[in-house]
Amino acid sequence: MEESQIYPCFYPCTNKAEFEDLDTQACELLDFPNAGATDYCNPIIDKFGVYWFTVNPEVNSLVDLTKCVPYDEIVLPPSPPTK
Description:
Layout: E1 9-13, H1 16-29, E2 44-45, E3 51-55
Antiparallel strand pairs: 1-3, 2-3
């Protein structure tokens, strides 16, 4: 399946701690300087409180790609009304 994988895709984390752990692993994998202060990505938090980790080819070894979805399948919370 990896050959036909479209990036970026998004991996559903079981909780915020899992997201933070994946983010730290991604920083280390990409050799970001001062990984403790640098983030690989910001979480997308959906309508149900699920943290989504952004997956690109450089970090795809960190997750189960069969669980990843495209951005348009994430159910986002409604935007606040504009004035």
